[in-house]
Amino acid sequence: NAGVTQTPKFRILKIGQSMTLQCAQDMNHNYMYWYRQDPGMGLKLIYYSVGAGITDKGEVPNGYNVSRSTTEDFPLRLELAAPSQTSVYFCASSYSESGGPYNSPLHFGNGTRLTVT
Amino acid sequence: AQKITQTQPGMFVQEKEAVTLDCTYDTSDPSYGLFWYKQPSSGEMIFLIYQGSYDQQNATEGRYSLNFQKARKSANLVISASQLGDSAMYFCAMRDLTGNQFYFGTGTSLTVIP
Q1: Cβ–Cβ below 8 Å for B104 and A43
Q2: Which DSSP state fits A73?
Q3: Which residues have C-beta within 8 Å of that of residue B82, sequence separation ≥ 6?
Q4: Each residue of B47-105: pLDDT tens digit?
Q5: What is the pLDDT of residues A61-97, one digit of tens each?
Q6: pLDDT score recorded for residue B30
Q7: What residues contact A62, with CB distance under 8 A and at least 6 apart?
Q8: Size of interface A-B (CB pairs under 8 A)
Q9: DSSP structural state of residue B105
Q10: Helix ranges (DSSP H) in chain B
Q11: Residue B15: CB partners within 8 Å, gap ≥ 6?
Q12: Residue B108: predicted pLDDT
C-alpha cells in the first residue's frame, strides 16, 4: 500500500541545470498536485491535474512544467534551475467526482528537498 | 484574496491540556470542504480531520475535533489532552466548489510543554 511515492528525496542542483521530480500514486486518484513549501511557510500550488492528459497552472507555475500521460504518474520538470527554486516539493493526490462530495483529502508524498546553488 | 487565514504563528500548550488552533476562511461557494493537516519536524503531511460545509455536526477524530462556525467562516481545530507528540506545524486547508484546488493557510507551530 504505497500511496504517493516521490523520488528523489534529496537533490542538489547547480544554477541552470534541469531535473525531473517523479511522482506516482497507486490509489487510482484522478486529481494530482505539485506544491512547494519554502522554509517556515505554507504550501503553494505549482501545477495540478484533474485527469490523464489534463494539467493546469497553480499559483506559482513559472520555471516548471508538468505532464500527465497516465493516471498514476505526474512528473514535475524544472528547467534552468534558479536559487529561488530551493524548496521542499510535495506531490499529492486526491479523488473527486464532478459536483462533489469534497470530502476526499489530499494524500501527500514524503517530499523532495531541493537545493539550487 | 487569501482564502485561508491562520493568525497564530506559534502556540504553546501544557501537556494534557486542550488547545485551539484558529482558522478562518473566505469563500462565496455554497459547498466546500475544510481540512486540517499536521506536519511534524520529519516533514510529512498527515491528514487529521475533515468538515463539510453542509455537515450539521462538528467533526471529531479521536482527540481532534473541529469547531465549525459557518456564519463566522471559522473552522478551528481543538486538540484535547495534548501530548508531546502533538508538537508540529498545523495547516488548515479548504477545497473549493470545483473541487480542483486546495487552499492552505500559513500554518501554526504548536509546542507542547512537559
Answers
A1: yes
A2: B
A3: B13, B14, B15, B16, B17, B18, B19, B112
A4: 999 999 989 899 999 999 999 999 999 999 999 999 999 999 999 999 987 778 899 99
A5: 999 999 999 999 999 999 899 999 999 999 999 987 7
A6: 85
A7: none
A8: 58
A9: -
A10: none
A11: B82, B83, B84, B112, B113, B114
A12: 97
Of B61, A68, A108, the C-alpha closest to A77 is A68
How many residues are listed for chain A in this entry? Answer: 117
End-to-end CA gap in chain A: 36
pLDDT of residue A2: 78
B106 contacts A42? CB cut-off 8 A: yes
- C-alpha A83/C-alpha A15 separation (Å) is 7
- Is the minimum CB–CB distance between A39 and chain B shorter than 8 Å? no
Asked if residue B111 lies in contact with residue B11, where contact means CB atoms within 8 angstroms, the answer is yes
Nearest one of A69, A68, A44, A73 to A56, comparing CA atoms: A68
Is the backbone peptide bond immediately before A75 cis, with ω within 30 degrees of 0? no
Tell me how crowded residue B17 is: count the other CB atoms within 10 A of its CB.
12
**Cβ distance of B35 and A31 shorter than 8 Å:** no
* DSSP code, position B22: -
- Backbone phi and psi for residue A37, each to the nearest 5 degrees, phi listed first: -130, 110
For residue B9, say if its preceding peptide bond is cis, omega within 30 degrees of 0. Answer: no
Nearest Cα of chain B lies from the Cα of A108 at a distance, in angstroms, of: 6
| Record: contact A31-B50, CB cut-off 8 A | no
B52 near A CB under 8 A: yes
Beta bridge partners of A44: A36
CB contact under 8 A, B33 and A43: no
